[in-house]
Amino acid sequence: MGTFRQAMVCGLGASGAAAARLLRAEGVAVTAVDERESPESRSRAAALAELGCAVALGVSAPPAGDFDVAVVSPGLPGDGAFLAEVRRRGIPLRSEMELGWSRSRGRTIAVTGSNGKSSVVKALAEALAASGRRAVPCGNSGRPVCQVVLDVPAADWLVIEASSFQLETCADFRPDVAVLLNVLPNHLDRHGTVAAYARLKARTFARQRAGDFALTPPEWRERFRKWSGGQGAWRTFGTEAACDFRHAPHRLAARDAGEIDVAGSYFDNEVLGPNAAALFGAALAAGVPAETVAAGLRAFRPLPHRAEPVGEFGGVRYVDDSKATNLSALIASVRMQDRPVWLIAGGRPKESDFSAAVPVLAERVRGAFLIGEAAAALAAAWRAAVPCEICGTLDRAVAAARRAAAPGETVLLAPACTSYDQFRAYGERGDAFRHFAREKD
Questions:
Q1: CA atoms of 264 and 257, how far apart (whole Å)
Q2: I need a surface site. Which of 6, 258, 280, 307 has the fewest CB within 10 A?
Q3: What is the distance between the alpha carbons of residues 278 and 261, in angstroms, rounded to a whole number?
């Protein structure tokens, strides 16, 4: 990305604040702005002002100035009025992720897709670390890339979770290893269509050159190669025999590197098995020995709020999958359970058509307890397939599920919606679920 004299940082969330700190460490004159004003943004603004940044909160338009670049936080919509004015003034837009990547001295694995990114990023970073490399997971749901570059400047590998929001404003981003896990309907409230969303994902591969490694499901390879123009070595993963990296029950196979045993691991199931094949391929491309990958997968512990068991009470298992914020993630979460399910779902919807879940609900779910803004829409879509009860709030839903569930069954929080109608984040919603699960009526 080059060097800058003056930079505008748009958005003072964690990523925007990290970008401002990194630019100030380089001696850049930074103006940091945010359309919102909250106790959290005021605290970050005060800290940045102490570093010499000019800061403005509650602004409705970009500040005046001759800026070399505008670094954009992922929460700002690319087609919004604020960034439209930045473009009109001819100021280049760049994502915080790309700024941090451009300052890294090491190599990069980027993982994109609709579902499962965070767990794959964690497993890859652990496999690299076990093979003696200093690897740091970062990006969309972890530490901002700019912060990692400040904190761990000598990292051998960045393992970046790349979201469509971050990719919107990438121009030069070029990972050594790029992985597309899947493309499922997600963030259509922002991107409009699955096709537009998928083309943003393809930007992950666009700057790759000979010697780089590109890994996708077989059904997406040719489209992503065409859309991106990426010149890396394109390989596939999945469950089909023709894939370069393949999952079968209890094992992963690589066309040129044999098989490994992953029996009993978090990834050893029909839902996460293809993701395990993808991370196997990416790890091998990064030079990790196959047996190191196998040992890491067998020892893997999931991140919080991703199909995380939070306890078993009265013979009923409670599982927190608060991170399942779209319908495809809900379907996958239900399919992962090995017991009959009582489902808690709802929140602020990102989609309008919930009918795709009907077959798995009819097959595996005893009843659904619905919360938040989407409750009525979910009930209308599902009540012909499964009994639905509109509970409104999470505490009431957990109490209703506890009364309904019998020993040997599971109460699953898999909302298919964001948490922002009733909670600040999916993690807060998951923590509340854990708390309510441990309460007694």
A1: 22
A2: 258
A3: 15
Q: pTM for this one?
A: 0.87
Contact by Cβ (8 Å): 13, 45: no
Pairing label, strands 251-254, 258-261: antiparallel
pLDDT tens digits along 232-247:
999 999 999 999 999 9
- CA atoms in the 13 A half-sphere facing the CB of 52: 12
Helix pair angle (117-130, 290-299), 10° resolution: 120
Q: Name beta bridge partners: 412.
A: 319, 343
| Pairing assessment for the beta strands 365-371 and 388-392 based on DSSP bridges | parallel
For 191-207, what is each residue's pLDDT tens digit? 779 899 999 999 999 99
Contact 118, 112 (CB under 8 A): no
- Exposed/middle/buried for 338, CB within 10 Å: 0-12, 13-18, 19+? exposed
Half-sphere exposure in the Cβ direction for 198 (13 Å, CA): 19
CA angle 194, 15, 228 (to 5 degrees): 35
